[in-house]
Specification:
It is built from 13 helices and eight strands. Strands 1, 2, 3, 4, 5, 6, 7 and 8 form an eight-stranded parallel beta sheet that branches. By secondary structure, the protein is of the alpha/beta class. Helix 1 crosses helix 8, helix 2 crosses helix 9 and helix 8 runs parallel beside helix 9. It binds S-adenosylmethionine. S-adenosylmethionine binds next to loops.
Length: 347
């Protein structure tokens, strides 16, 4: 499938034609990664952040939010919960928080590896090679870093670099792959300023880098951010050129991503479940996705990790989340994955 065909499918609006896209994506998913849905326990370990991402509710400039950093004991306890639930891996995510030091994270990873069979995914933003190498050596398996958009001008506008230090997420992804990480990335669908051409290029870029994991979800405006509050209209393209942040477009991106990256692990994201609480998870899984990330963050912190408002599952306990997801997976005839669920069982 070339870029023009990707673009054509993104613009397709006829339900009858889209049925073909859904069927193709689901059959490639079934043939290439099977019917298992892998569960990754998500732990949001800190909402401190030094970045000023224009879209994100926990960015450094967001005032009026209570900042937290989980203690080592709290993190280990959440990891234990994920292991008891039978999840094959944990994803530790945070704002870009220098308080999560190289040594703290390294020793945390070692403890998890010494006491569980879990694969470990990190998602701590743009970190130094020294830190990334140390965490890999300590036992981390995967790293998630969305490139957010493949349009460099749009990227600069929504994700300002630090003075004198250009943000280059593609370069970090490639270096991490060389270090031995499985690399994960993704984009938001419907970011103000995102055109259909850009979105087609994003999907083509997933293929170009042969990403191991790819997460896509709708952009959800966060009211206290430049892209979500008053003045956000300045960022939008004219109607027709601007990609909408809706469910249908997100599902097209999930399906096309499966077609261009047949072996990738693709989550049905929380953002998708947020815009369609009734069936967003199931639709994502039926149209290309094979991973879900149930939240195991303690509820008192989960409400503070508000990257956008109304996040799905925010008030549920980890147990309720697990039971609900297991029911949803069974309802579409899929089975729970066993083990770490890495790309081609690579760990
Ligand atoms: N700090 C790390 C980083 O930047 O990669 C990880 C945390 S960051 C909150 C995780 C992801 O949340 C981002 O990559 C972005 O795509 C997504 N996100 C942030 N704000 C969002 C919004 N308003 N709507 C939808 N997704 C959002």
């Amino acid at each position: 499938m070339d870029r023009a065909e990707i673009f054509g499918w993104l613009c397709e609006m006829q339900e009858g034609h889209l049925e073909e896209l859904w069927k193709r994506a689901d059959s490639v998913r079934s043939a290439m990664v099977g019917d298992e849905v892998h569960l990754r326990g998500l732990i949001e370990i800190s909402n401190y952040c030094v970045r000023q991402c224009r879209y994100c509710g926990i960015n450094a400039c967001s005032s009026g939010i209570t900042r937290y950093r989980m203690t080592r004991e709290e993190i280990i306890s959440s990891v234990g919960e994920a292991a008891r639930f039978g999840y094959g891996s944990v994803v530790m995510q945070s704002g870009e928080d220098p308080g999560l030091t190289k040594d703290f994270v390294s020793s945390l990873i070692r403890e998890i590896k010494d006491t569980t069979e879990l694969a470990i995914t990190l998602s701590f933003g743009e970190r130094s090679d020294d830190e990334l190498r140390a965490w890999k050596e300590a036992g981390a398996n995967r790293y998630l870093l969305r490139f957010e958009t493949s349009d460099p001008v749009l990227y600069d506008r929504i994700h300002p670099s630090f003075p004198g230090k250009l943000s280059n997420r593609f370069a970090q992804l490639e270096r991490m792959r060389d270090m031995g990480y499985e690399i994960g990335t993704g984009v938001m669908v419907g970011i103000p300023g995102q055109s259909w051409e850009t979105l087609a290029q994003d999907i083509d870029t997933f293929r170009y880098y042969d990403m191991d994991m790819i997460g896509v979800g709708p952009f959800l405006p966060s009211p206290h951010t430049p892209l979500g509050g008053h003045g956000a209209s300045d960022f939008y393209l004219e109607p027709g050129r601007q990609v909408p942040n809706d469910e249908l477009t997100t599902l097209k991106v999930v399906a096309l991503t499966r077609l261009v990256c047949p072996e990738a692990n693709i989550p049905s994201t929380t953002a998708l479940a947020t815009i369609d609480p009734a069936s967003g998870r199931e639709l994502g899984l039926s149209r290309g996705a094979n991973v879900v990330m149930p939240n195991v963050t303690p509820p008192q912190y989960r409400v503070l990790y508000e990257i956008y408002p109304g996040k799905a599952c925010i008030h549920e306990t980890a147990l309720v989340c697990r039971d609900c997801l297991e029911r949803r997976i069974a309802s579409i005839g899929r089975v729970l994955g066993k083990g770490p669920g890495g790309r081609k069982n690579s760990g």
